[in-house]
Write a structure and sequence with these properties.
- The chain has three domains: about 120 residues, Phosphorylase Kinase, domain 1, CATH 3.30.200; about 180 residues, Transferase(Phosphotransferase), domain 1 (Orthogonal Bundle), CATH 1.10.510; about 40 residues.
- It is about 35% helix and about 15% strand.
- Strands 1, 2, 3, 4, 5, 6, 7 and 8 form an eight-stranded antiparallel sheet that branches. Strands 9-10 form a two-stranded antiparallel ribbon.
- The longest helix has 20 residues.
- It is a peripheral membrane protein.
- It is an enzyme of class 2 (transferase).
- One of its GO terms (molecular function) is protein serine/threonine kinase activity.
Length: about 375
């Protein structure tokens, strides 16, 4: 995508008084000669949260609103020019995944601006808060709910990883709830990923400990500095964190109680995998298998995001593709220009059709091979067989 696309989200901003901003907005769907619109916003006096990187405030529109009445603004303190460019790199990922193509899975960037030594990101509000806060006040999720959340976070990671990014801070606090079931309105889960500081492309990633800003509980073993690795695969570290997050949503307990427990698990993962906790929570064998595959101590042995999308547990949550009515006879055209009607059969062939064209089915061939092997063994043992 490149940093030049980040400038599309830059907001021309004025600062009339402390805590207030005015954006000069040009409406893309308005006539060219129409006067630009001024949009005023005022932030709350108290921040929503304060971290070592900066502060997060709620802003409310006071005049000139077109779309969002409320938004969240993350203010990052810029120590020097290098810090500025580093966080503009963060904006690259946020801007890219704010495209409508990805909007189901990521919190959307609404714009950014600078003030003195502060870089400010304006983000959409996700109404349900974060998953960590939600579950602290409630019991562990049933397996179907955890599966929905895991599948959605996994799809987001697959998008990130395919585009060459790593998230580097997967944890329940960064899964924001757009929708969740309630006693009055039972329904499905919908979560979105936030916090991309971290979402730098691999070329910008280093093994410097100062860049490791994942929550301690969700850090992969290789991030604890015990392994001598020439480079760290942060995408594999994302998958470890997803495995631990899935475990937590199902059990409300940490998969590892201490760093020492992680080291012991590295030495004997099969014996120390916490199956008992998952059994107590009635987690299926497929669910346990996915967690086990994501939490392999060696990064190169973990499932990648695209591989995990094909796991049996994840596939069980995927909706079926809608059927095209039979009367719709107009063929569709693929990106390659090939008409799908010319390329694909309209009806799934039966096993009888396949046999007529290609001989025995794989199952029939396997059965024949098994019978021949059994007969050969009996003959070698001196048995008299009538055929």
């Amino acid at each position: 995508m490149g940093l030049h696309h980040v400038w599309y989200y830059a907001l021309e901003t004025r600062f009339p008084k402390k805590g207030e901003v005015v954006h000069v907005c040009g409406d893309h769907d308005a006539p060219p000669l129409l006067q630009q619109r001024l949009e005023g916003r005022k932030r709350d006096k108290r921040p929503i949260s304060v971290g070592r990187k900066g502060k997060v405030f709620l802003q409310t529109c006071t005049s000139g609103r077109r779309h969002y009445t409320h938004r969240v603004v993350k203010m990052i303190r810029l120590q020097d020019r290098g810090t500025r460019w580093r966080y503009l790199g963060e904006l690259e990922a946020i801007a890219k995944f704010s495209h409508p193509k990805y909007s189901k899975y990521f919190v959307k960037l609404l714009g950014w601006y600078e003030r003195s030594y502060w870089l400010c990101f304006a983000m959409q509000i996700v109404p349900g808060g974060d998953l960590q806060t939600y579950l602290i006040q409630r019991s562990a999720l049933q397996e179907d709910g955890s599966l929905e959340i895991t599948s959605q976070v996994l799809q987001g990671l697959a998008f990130l990883h395919t585009e060459g990014f790593a998230h580097r801070d997967i944890k329940p606090q960064n899964a924001l709830i757009q929708q969740c079931p309630t006693p009055i309105e039972p329904g499905s889960w919908w979560v979105k990923l936030s916090e991309f500081g971290i979402g730098k492309s691999p070329e910008a990633l280093t093994s410097d400990a100062s860049t490791l800003i994942s929550a301690y509980d969700y850090m992969a073993p290789e991030l604890h500095g015990q392994e001598s690795l020439p480079s760290i695969d942060y995408q594999a570290a994302d998958m470890w964190a997803l495995g631990l997050m899935t475990f937590w949503t199902l059990t409300k307990s940490r998969m590892f109680s201490s760093l020492g427990a992680v080291y012991r698990y590295e030495a004997s993962p099969d014996a120390l995998f916490p199956r008992g906790s998952l059994d107590d929570s009635h987690v299926s064998s497929d669910g346990q298998a996915l967690i086990r595959s994501l939490t392999k101590p060696k990064p190169d042995q973990r499932l990648g995001s695209n591989e995990a999308m094909s796991h049996a547990w994840v596939l069980s949550s995927m909706p079926s593709a809608p059927m095209i009515p039979a009367e719709c006879n107009e063929p569709s055209v693929s990106p390659s220009g090939v008409r799908t009607k010319d390329k694909l059969p309209l009806e799934k062939p039966s096993w009888i059709d396949v046999k007529d064209k290609f001989g025995d089915t794989p199952l029939q061939r396997a059965a024949k091979d098994a019978r021949m092997a059994a007969l050969k063994q009996l003959l070698e043992q001196g048995e008299n067989i009538e055929i």
